[in-house]
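REQUEST ID: PR-0412
SUBMITTED BY: lab tech R.K.
PRIORITY: routine
TASK: structure prediction, single protein chain
INPUT:
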Amino acid sequence: MAEASSKQDLIVGVDLGGTKVLAGVFSPQLKRLSSAKLTTKAERGYTAVVERIARCVRDAVDEADFSLKQVRAIGIGAPGAINPESGEVIFAPNLRWKDAPLKKDLEKMLDVPVFIENDCNVCALGVHAVELGGRPRHMLGIFVGTGIGGGLIINGELYGGFNRTAGEIGHMVLEVGGPKCGCGNRGCFEALASRTAIFRRLTEAVKEGQKTVLTEMLGPGQELTDLKSGDLRKAMRKGDKLVGKVIEDAAEYTGIAVANLINILNPEVIVLGGGVLDALADEMMAIIIGTARDYAMAGTDKGIEIIASKLGDEAGITGSAVLARRGMKS
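STATUS: complete
OUTPUT:
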């Protein structure tokens, strides 16, 4: 009977992105039991996406041979500005959502309590609670993917700040008058070191006549932006000088950002993750760490660990499960 009763405490973590929805079913001890993935299809509008999230949750639960009645709580990491108290997505540019009542609508569809946080905040929660065993009192997560986001753990708790938007480290300006960022400013960290920024620089270089093996990987009529972060790794391993230089520059900008954050926040551990770092940790981490140590004020970085996360694609669903478990207990 113990087995049957423990199954009543399942939690589901959902990673909601502009292109995909990933759902994972977890035990109360945060062991992943199953997962399911669907494309987001944001262009179909808000209601259609909420229905797809609900379907992805049901698929993940079904995959593990459980029923939705056994799920105690669902956590969701959503892109953009979130109000965790009301469960509203205030603004999510990638999804084209504004003031979207995601918690209320999903609870109506699934009849399970839903808890919502910013996607990078839940990734930081996942890394802190599961990968690092809740050990650091102060931790900073930096996630370099299509964009760049962050999550702050201060005194063992997720820190949201006055307007619940703390951790927008992708929009620190690192180069005044630099390239235009999606947020409207110029020279943001995200406009200099994200996957989008890396491919923009490569596209500009190819137009100027510079050579890269990436163009050989493409089918007819495709753009460089159709490639993935893993293709950058393949190009570097083939000795591609252009890709090597662009990645080195992105790693240096990331190191400067890390140094700024060490000077301001002085966390015990800084963890780097996201699609770009998952694919290129071997190529980027030594440059990031070396640059951060060079730029941090003397003595401020003593004893601070700068590491790459090993959770990879699982960080979002794991952190969302941590969020659900915390919500369930409160």
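NOTES: Residues 20 and 39 are 4 Å apart (CA to CA).
REVIEWED BY: pending
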